[in-house]
Specification:
Layout: H1 5-16, H2 19-49, H3 53-70, E1 78-79, H4 85-95, H5 97-116, H6 128-150, H7 159-171, H8 175-191, H9 196-199, H10 203-218, H11 245-271, H12 281-298, E2 304-305, H13 307-315, H14 322-337, H15 339-342, H16 347-361, H17 364-372, H18 376-388, H19 391-411, E3 414-418, E4 423-432, H20 437-445, E5 452-462, H21 464-479, E6 483-488, H22 493-498, H23 520-523, H24 546-569, E7 577-582, H25 589-592, E8 600-605, H26 621-634, E9 638-644, H27 648-655, H28 662-668, H29 672-680, E10 685-686, H30 694-711, H31 714-721, E11 726-733, E12 738-743, E13 748-751
Helix pairs in contact: 2-3, 2-4, 2-10, 2-13, 2-14, 2-16, 3-12, 3-14, 4-5, 4-11, 5-11, 5-12, 6-7, 6-16, 6-18, 6-19, 8-10, 8-16, 11-12, 11-13, 18-19, 20-21, 29-30
């Protein structure tokens, strides 16, 4: 849910005015709507938990006032939550109500400690599939239990018992109670389809009020809510157990964790619903803890952040935490002044409300999301555990399965063999650990004896067990007359293990330059080295033929990745840039511009020269024909002239061309204008300073001179005047791998990615 432009304007207007005007205009109306939603839900949750009915109202009051004031999520509304009903029912059944209140107090204290230790965000590491599965399991359990109450019977503590006894309950309907419960459920189902004016009344409130009025008018003989004679006479003082402290501690930890996770997830969801101040999760845990300590001490249920109330709070226009606090005040006043109204509500009506709430916890959108992420097994296991065993067991089963899935996904390698006959290629990808050894051993031992095997390792970690498996197999295969060529892509895990200096921690592995970028000599072979001196990561047969190995690498690894892109480009090219640069082997235009196929029309020559336009039909024809094709036919929007440091052409201009290279001398004659410019014009700076080397200073002036030559062309000049073309000067400091862009107003090349640079015009 997001706010519209009008809502954002209202919020900005509210934030600008006095605080009390915001409260009166936005928070007061919102608090009344949230209050109307909270009362029936609080009563229903207390009923489903097996707690005294008034405990739900106490929790609603405390959740609004205490958690609302002390929490860190301004628009979150807290109170008794459906997500804890199963746990509370089991806890009350095991310990009794007074000890359960003490458990709630202790759980609140633990939540405060969680908040003070700043671990709130760590709770969000639990997989959403487990959280959604937990909520769905709770919803199914609530539905199975409350269906019995709707039908006029009693709910069982076991979901399995509820399932087994449901057919008998259907055959023995308790007339009035069943009618009221089903009517409540029917109203809730159709309320969202009624006209908008009617839907302004919250569906839970409407259903409970209508069914209660009908029950009172008809005098239906259905069991009603039972409140103490004086709801303000609180007698639920918490008591410590006489023994069983281990079970007591487990219950405290369970309630604290579930309440914390549910509150934090609700706070995250609420943050996504509005554009105001973001929540402080650690403070929210402290607020929830203080609320639970207070609620337990007064005889109330545990509280959590509740997404139903919170979303209602945001949707009705709340701006500050005053709305949550006021909603708690309204619940208190309603309970104190209108207790007789509450006692008129049929229990079957509250059960119908809970069945509706429980069914909504099984969210089909969540199931689709979990399925898309491949975590359906986590969801199903968690749901089954919660329904068939208990909530804590279900969550633990989900967490355990998630750990196994993480191990499988992050530490299980892909191992496959390619080829036929005596030439095979085995590709191993991923983290190669002991978990992969059985699969790895099966593939390796299935290779023919005396075969030539290229072992291609594309691994980001190699543990001792996997190394030992590879090393032992290689020795055995070579002893039997076979040949093994080890080709490690990336960090040399296997080679380091063989030379006695293995890397045992992933974070200590050196970052390997990708093969598509690194010079072939860095990843394939040292030219001229003896066969015995070559490390295992190299390819001896191809160390003198780098392009053969490079094309093989392209077809094996790169081609599958770019094939779709190349297919789209097959019909024609539409580059955005004409890139003119030096033929120097160290300059890789697509790397320094982060571009790919189809992006740039490239011209390379010694010295990145553009001859004067009057020479466009001489030896400058190659350059000028490319310029005319790029501008006149391809319609590029930018021309870049890129020079670089340590340029051999610039040194030749300064020191002279070696004898006998007449062709080179003739070509570099086009660079004399740039050389003369460096001697007569004002200096061109590199990041505010003049270059230390004379050749680099000439290279900077040379870029400016070539841009001037481009402007001599009528075609280029016309495109510039129409605003359809931009000229850009660029310079690469090879040693520092730093790109600079020209600011023409200051004759200064500025570092790219630091302050940016204006484009030449």
């Amino acid at each position: 849910m997001t706010l519209s432009t009008g809502q954002q304007s209202d919020q900005q207007e509210a934030d600008a005015g006095p605080w009390w005007t915001t409260v009166l205009r936005y928070d007061l109306p919102a608090s009344l709507v949230v209050f109307l939603v909270a009362v029936p839900l609080s009563l229903g949750i207390a009923l489903a938990s097996g707690a005294p009915i008034v405990a739900g109202l106490i929790a609603a009051v405390v959740g609004g006032i205490v958690a609302g004031a002390a929490g860190g999520s301004p628009l979150q509304v807290s109170g008794p939550a459906a997500g804890l009903t199963v746990v509370m029912a089991e806890t009350i059944n095991q310990f009794g109500w007074a000890v359960t209140c003490a458990i709630t107090v202790a759980a609140g204290l633990l939540q405060v400690l969680f908040g003070l230790s700043r671990v709130a965000r760590a709770a969000l590491a639990i997989s959403p599939a487990i959280v959604h599965g937990m909520l769905a399991g709770i919803g199914i359990t609530i539905v199975l239990g409350q269906l019995h109450v709707i039908l006029g019977g009693d709910s069982n503590s076991s979901a399995i018992d509820n399932i087994l006894q449901l057919p008998g309950q259907l055959l023995d309907l308790h007339g009035p109670a069943a009618f009221l419960g089903l009517l409540t459920l029917g109203i809730l189902l159709v309320w969202g389809k009624l006209p908008a004016a009617v839907r302004k009344v919250p569906a839970p409130l409407a259903a409970i009020v209508l069914v209660t009025v009908l029950a009172v008018v008809t005098g239906a003989s259905a069991e009603r809510v039972d409140l103490p004679s004086s709801v303000l006479d609180i007698r639920f003082a918490p008591e410590l157990p006489g023994g069983g402290w281990a079970d007591f501690a487990v219950a405290v930890l369970t309630i604290a964790l579930i309440a914390s996770i549910e509150s934090l997830l609700s706070a995250v969801a609420v943050d996504k619903m509005h554009t105001g101040k973001r929540g402080n999760f650690d403070r929210e845990l402290i607020g929830q803890g203080l609320g639970n300590m207070t609620s337990g001490a007064l005889g109330g249920l545990p509280i959590t952040g509740v997404i139903v109330r919170s979303s209602t709070n945001v949707a009705t226009g709340a701006r500050t935490r005053a709305s949550a606090i006021l909603h708690g005040v309204w619940v208190l006043l309603f309970t104190a002044l209108l207790a007789t109204v509450i006692e008129s509500i049929p229990l079957a009506a509250l059960a119908g409300l809970l069945v509706h709430v429980g069914a909504k916890l099984v969210n089909t959108a969540h199931i689709r999301e979990v399925l898309r992420h491949g975590d359906l097994s986590l969801y199903v296991v968690t749901v089954a555990g919660v329904v068939l065993i208990d909530l804590l067991s279900g969550v633990l089963l989900g967490v355990g399965l998630s750990v196994l899935l993480v191990l499988h996904r992050t530490m299980w390698s892909a191992v496959h063999s390619e080829g036929e006959g005596d030439t095979r290629r085995v590709v191993i990808e991923g983290a190669l650990t002991f978990l992969s050894v059985p699969r790895l051993s099966a593939v390796l031992n299935g290779l023919p004896e005396r075969s030539t095997v290229t072992l291609e390792l594309v691994v980001d970690y190699l543990d001792h067990a996997a190394f030992d498996c590879l090393h032992t197999w290689q020795e055995a295969h070579e002893r039997s007359g076979g040949r093994v060529i080890v080709d490690e892509v990336g960090h040399p895990w296997f080679a380091r293990g063989k030379d006695g200096s293995p890397i045992v921690r992933k974070d200590r592995a050196g970052a390997a330059v990708p093969r598509w970028l690194a010079p072939w000599s860095e990843w394939m072979a040292r030219d001229g080295a003896d066969e015995e001196e070559l490390p295992q990561v190299q390819i001896p047969d191809q160390r003198h033929a780098p392009l053969r190995r490079g094309t093989s690498e392209f077809q094996t690894r790169t081609a599958p990745l770019v094939r779709d892109t190349m297919s789209r480009l097959a019909a024609g090219q539409q580059p955005h840039t004409l890139f003119i640069t030096c033929a120097d082997a160290r300059i890789v235009p697509n790397v320094i511009t982060t571009s790919g196929p189809g992006d740039m029309f490239t011209v390379r020559n010694v010295g990145n020269l553009v001859p004067p336009h009057e020479q466009h039909s001489g030896d400058g024809a190659a350059v000028w024909s490319s310029v005319e094709f790029a501008v006149g036919v391809l319609g590029v929007s930018e021309i870049v002239v890129c020079g670089h440091s340590s340029c051999g052409a610039m040194r030749a201009l300064l020191d002279g061309v070696p004898e006998g290279l007449t062709g080179l001398a003739g070509w570099l004659g086009h660079g004399e204008a740039g050389l003369e410019r460096s001697r007569t014009a004002r200096s061109v700076r590199l990041d505010g300073a003049e270059p230390a080397h004379a050749g680099d200073a000439v290279a900077l002036h040379n870029v400016l001179q070539q841009l001037d030559h481009l402007r001599e062309s009528p075609l280029v000049r016309s495109a510039l005047e129409r605003g359809e073309l931009t000229l850009t000067g660029m310079y690469l400091d090879v040693g520092n791998a730093q790109v600079y862009l020209l600011d023409p107003a200051a004759d200064n090349f500025e570092p790219a990615g630091v302050r940016g640079a204006a484009q030449a015009r």
